[in-house]
C-alpha cells in the first residue's frame, strides 16, 4: 500500500482494521486525580489535566492496521506510519487491565497509553507483526 492511498482522506476501513476507542484508561487517570485531592490539590490538578488530555486523545486519535504498517491518524491526517518490517517486539502491559502498549522498532522505542480496544490491538498485532511478546 503506497503512502498516497492513506493520506488526506482519513482512516478508511477498506484499507485496514481501525481500532475502536476506549476511554477506560483516561477515566482511571481522572479518578486517580480525584483521589489525589486527599494528598495535594496541585498533584490532583496535574493528574486530572493529564486524564483530560488522554480523554481528548482517545477521541481524536485512531490506530489503523494496514497491510504493511500501523498508521496513527489524527482526524483525517496521518501522524505517523510504523512499517511492520522494522518492528522487533511488542507488549501490552498489565494483562486484564491493559494500560500501556510498548513496541520497539529497529531505531526507536514507543510507549502508548491504551486508548483503544486492547483485545483488538492484541489480535491485530498477532496477525501483522511476526515478533511475538
Give structural notes:
- This protein has 133 residues and is of the alpha+beta class.
- The chain has a single domain, classed as PH-domain like.
- The protein has 3 helices and 7 strands, in the order βααββββββα.
- The chain has helices at 24-35, 41-60, 118-128; strands at 17-18, 61-65, 69-74, 77-83, 87-93, 100-105, 109-113.
- It has a 4-stranded antiparallel β-sheet. It has a 3-stranded antiparallel β-sheet with strand order 5-6-7, with helices on one face.
- Strand 3 (69-74) and strand 4 (77-83) form a beta hairpin.
Describe the secondary structure blueprint for this structure.
Blueprint: E1 17-18, H1 24-35, H2 41-60, E2 61-65, E3 69-74, E4 77-83, E5 87-93, E6 100-105, E7 109-113, H3 118-128
Helix pairs in contact: 1-2
Strand line-up in the sheet with most strands: 1-2-3-4
What's the order of the H and E elements? Answer: EHHEEEEEEH
Largest sheet, described in full? Answer: 4 strands, antiparallel
**Derived structural class:** alpha+beta
Amount of helix? 25-40%
Our count of domains comes out at 1
Total count of helical runs of at least 4 residues = 3
How would the global form be characterised?
Answer: elongated
Distance between the first and last residues' Cα: 26 Å
Low-confidence segments = none
Give keywords:
single chain; 133 residues; alpha+beta; PH-domain like; four-stranded antiparallel sheet; three-stranded antiparallel sheet; 7 strands; 32% helix; 29% strand
